[in-house]
Amino acid sequence: MSPSLTAVARGVRPFIEAAERLVTAFSPSTWTPVVQRQISQCLWAEARQILPRFVLLSGLLSLAIVHIVVNTTNNYGLSGFALATVMRLLVVELLPLLAAVNVALAPPGRGAGAALVVSRCVLVIVMTTLSSAVALAIAYLGMYGLTPWGLGIYTHTVGQVFEPVVLIALALKSLLFAVTVATLSRAALTFGALLGIEILLLVIEFL
Amino acid sequence: MDKPSTEAHDAGIERKAIALIVVTVALIVAFVLYVMTARGLFAETQPLVLTTENSEGVRPGMDLTFSGFPVGRVRRVELADDGRVRVLVDVRTRDARWLRTSSIFTLERGIVGEARLRVFSALLDDPPLPAGEERPLLRGDASEQLPQVLSSARMLVENLERLTAQGSPFANTLEHVETVTGRMSGKQGVLGAVLGGDEEARKLIATLDHLNRLLAQADQRLFAAGGLADTSQASLTELQGLLVEARASLKRADAILADVQGASADLGTLRTEVEMGLRKTSRLIDEINRKWPFSHKTEISPP
Description:
The complex is a heterodimer of chains A (207) and B (303). Chain A is mostly helical and 207 residues long. Chain A is 83% helix and 0% strand. With 303 residues, chain B is of the alpha/beta class. Among the domains of chain B are: 9-42; 45-146, no CATH class. The mean pLDDT of chain B is 85.
């Protein structure tokens, strides 16, 4: 084998291993009661460790961003775009990436093999969902305060921002982030893959 | 730790993990349903077709607003066989009451921000717009007028340049204004500027002084004690007395005339009698003339 081919093979190898881990983890034969119990334990252990901290931090970040965007758009007379900007920035772009990075940086839980892959996969999606829900609530409160009268225009804006393409891209992005974080073992590769997925989906959204 | 308590602990963790997953799935499902509701997937709609010449600024998904509230959404934009653009709009049935037969639809494009599709219904008592109706879409595009505005601005700048150029009528006028204001700041002020020089202004002032003196003299002649005014006043009083007397004389003359008019009625009779006397006298003379020795033969001899 030539040196260049060896280099390519060495470079591709982590991805092949990741694919093997993914296939093994989601094969029906793997899901024995023991593995299921391991998945639950692993998921809960990691969730207890990361989830509260992440939801709190993402909430604070959302609060800061909502405040900045709402004030800035008000100053420039563009308040009509504030809500849509916040939703796109936080829910569609920032929070899925932050959730994946947080799980990738967290030390692995007790489980190993398939249990670890599945639990990390699920955890990324759980964290993305919860932090997005908190961010949407903060966006409403930051924009309209404690009044129900903004709900109509808020719902309308949600309908405008989350077009079918955006929803599919968001779902695909979260899934790919989860799989990347759960299967790739080396941190540098994981971040590279996350960045690649982000760029790819941005290109798809623009097209 | 013994085996049953370990199993119970594991079961507890399993339940918590499942609860976490269920909450997440429930949130995702609720969000998807919320988005579908927000996009009007469960709302009843009625179609509306707007036709225009240019589809720029119109995109599927944009709102049709009435008084700032979204009442419909653009579903599709297509090119018709006649080359006109057809904008297919889904209007929510519950908001269709704001659309009347007299409603006007506009597409407004500002220089900043996306285009806005609006409906104006001034007469809400008019019949409601039927479903599937086709209406013209009026365009109000601020950016379309930019070239015209730029061209006008360029013409304006050129005119300004022409106006302010050296030797232009405007510049000459300004020079004249400067000369006039220079004169105005001279000893004789505005008068010097208006008359064209200080010498002329001095002449005018001298004339005015002379006129003032004349007026003073005239005032003395006219209104001083024993002046023309007093004399005229006395004459007028005298004239008034004369007029009274003249009026009395006229009245007397009128009376005399009335008497003369009465006497003139008897004159007719007198005249008749005189005429009769004259006629008799004439006849008498004629008779005497016929008597001898006064008679003479009357004959007509040819010339």
